[in-house]
Amino acid sequence: MDANLDALAVGGMALSAVVLVTGTANMVIMASLWVLYHSLVSVGQLWYSFGWESQLLETGFLSIFLCPLWTLSQVPPRCPPSLISIWTFRWLIVRIMLGATQPVPNPMSYYMHFSPWWFHRFETISNHLVELVFPFFTFLGRRMCVVNGAVQVLFQAVLITSGNLSFLNWLTIVPSLACFDDAALGFLFSSKSGAKKAVLEIQKEEAAGRTLKPSKGMFIRRVVNVSLAVLIGYLSVPVVMNLFSSKQVMNTSFDPLRIVNTYGAFGSITKERTEVIFQGTLSGDPKDPEALWEEYQFLCKPGDVQRRPCFISPYHYRLDWLMWFAAFQTYEQSEWVIHIAGRLLSNDSSVLSLIDYNPFQGRDTPRWVRGEHFRYRFTPPGSSSAAEGKWWLRKRIGAYFPAVDLEGLRGYFQSRSWPHPHLKPGSRT
């Protein structure tokens, strides 16, 4: 299974590299990329349950129809992107913003958090305008559409700077670009650029009334474009009905291929940050008050109060994100947390590769692992804690899950058909 998943990922990276290096793509390449990623999402279960997985799939599907069937050309003269394809992207950005609402903060998040009150009010007003008003500029003519595109790109740039939202904001910029046209984006390209010269030549021919001689291929392409419009329109019906529903659901697909979806990243959010901290001990008795509990540290999520928030976007630390979701649920609702604990008890290398610090590296494996629940908040600037180098203040809420050992987890794992972790010979003295 791991080899097959690796093969899918490597294949996708190779095709993506072709597009990136050459600046060209065709329907075959884009369709292949869409199928490969759809395969990963379909088998990824919880690890691929984030809303932007569907957004990436929808963006990828629409991108297929921007490209010629076979030709690899930066500006294919006989097959320019159709207006229908452009509008499907505009419809996508409208839905994303109407559905949208900081799981893993970055260093800038700290300073944004302690901004003056008037700045937070400005943020709130701006957020509502960008997400609820500007999307409708898309339907008010070229100039207003370009204004919306510029606002959305700027908004995503601010979010990239102030938060670690995986590749979500980078991905959202893609449909925003459909709000621009050649005239609006021409200044970005050198007049010596071959692509720009080709575009200008096509524009001159269109202005002079010279058009390409109709061909069978062009007719087929028009049929495909119209079919795309009909398909997107049909699949948008439940999405629009959901948008106006009093029981609106977010981040949902109404078709198995995830072609048209509802969005709403962080449609509901908690007022406080809570974190689950894994701890292990070598003590034989977890109830011993003298037992030394040592903490595991994840790659980016808050743990050690003196560790500065990190930059990860556009990368996606999936385990860190899932731990954030688990923190405002119970371990009974997030059973995979206990699965992680079992793998830590056996010093499983595949799980340890997903975290930053294993306190038992090069030592005996822990006899017990537990989950502690803490409430975190940023250290106020100028405070004594900040002077000590602390980025966070935390307060224990209680136990998230009780201390567990390998033998005690045997029945738990068996009841869920999970393979029971085993200690390697010599891993414990």
From TrEMBL:
The chain crosses the membrane at residues 7-35, 223-244. It is a multi-pass membrane protein. It is found in: Endoplasmic reticulum membrane. Residues 259-402 form the Lipase maturation factor 1/2 C-terminal domain. GO terms for cellular component: endoplasmic reticulum membrane. Residues 48-100, 101-185 form the Lipase maturation factor 1/2 N-terminal domain. One of its GO terms (biological process) is protein maturation. Belongs to the lipase maturation factor family. Involved in the maturation of specific proteins in the endoplasmic reticulum. This is Lipase maturation factor. It comes from Dissostichus eleginoides.
